[in-house]
Amino acid sequence: MLNSSQPPAPASAIETDQARAAADARGLRVAIISDAAPERNGVGTYYRDLAEHLKAVGAKVELISPRFRTGRWYGGLAMPMPGDPTQRFLIPQPRLISRRLKRLDPNAIIIATPGPYGMLGLILARRYGARLVVGFHTHFERLAALNNHWRLFGVLAQTYLNTCHRALFKASHLVLANSDEMLDVARSIGASKVGLMGTPIPKHFLDVPVNPLRPQIKQVLFAGRLAPEKNLGAVVEAAQALPQLQFQIAGDGPLRDWVQHEAARLSNLEYVGWVRRQEILPLIDRADLLVLPSTIESFGTIALEAMARGRLVVVSSQCGILSWDHLNRALFQMRDDETLSSTLMRVCALDQGILERKASLGREAAREINDRNLRHWVSVLRDQDPQGLEQYEAD
């Protein structure tokens, strides 16, 4: 008998419970091996969030990767990342990783990156006969074309990346990418069996109640790596052209000094620095609109997170998130003949009811793609229906 004194469970909680019930990961022992630290870029964030969701539906998960805490790197010998003094790649200690894998005895292994962690993971994975899934997230060749430091040793880097990717793809049971473009790139490198993956959202982004949109757009946010491919010049130009709006840039990267200089020059542009993962949600909630004007963006996780928080989102045509029809219809896309500032002017001129509907569509689409993605990952790790998300997009 129901207790009438107890309030009904929120619809979001009911939907989350239903998704967990449908995605039963009990019996799965999953090792996720990545060169990306959980809080330092989108790839690291992706697998930290995926591990959280898999654990919630019964899987045992070990996330094996470098760590970055209080300004220091942990997990091996740290080497400078060419072209980006804020990043490192780490040479792992084989004995420690081998011990963690032996303790877990994985029946599924995910390798997320082609770096030293990923390649050591490939070598060790052969001991377990586990199902091997490779995540393909970054088109390094296009990034290299934007970075002068990378060009200096481009041939060596290209040879290394192609060799590692081919080895990973050859050994894997399945290669997953998060956009149609990245699927094509994976095939061109040598992947024979590929599938589409969605992007997980931190559970609390979906569970915490959303603040409604304010009557007017006033606060615009960019959050991400401060790197050439993010097209930060468009954000600065928009701040200069639209003094009635307040702009924030959050993140770290090789363009940090330039961003700090521009923020000191413009009164309506604030550089908030590197933001810890637990501070991302309140940062998004304080904004009215998030922008991602990237020239290269395989997906755009921060855009999906902003949608989950009911915020308006503007993206460039180069963002892979547009490949997902259910998400595309909730986004504002920069037109080819538009600057970011003109796109923002167009959005600000829209009726409040249209904006609220767009934000609501985004929240619903983010929840749906997250739930479907969790079920898809469980089926992939169990070797069941690896084309599930591609079929979802076709429906």
From TrEMBL:
Single annotated GO MF: glycosyltransferase activity
Pfam families recorded: Glyco_trans_1_4, Glyco_transf_4
The family database entries (InterPro entries) matched by this protein are listed as: Glyco_trans_4-like_N, Glycosyltransferase_grp1
Q: Which SUPFAM superfamilies match?
A: UDP-Glycosyltransferase/glycogen phosphorylase (SSF53756)
Record's protein name: Glycosyl transferase family 1
Protein keywords: Transferase
Tell me the ranges covered by the Glycosyltransferase subfamily 4-like N-terminal domain, including all copies: 41-190
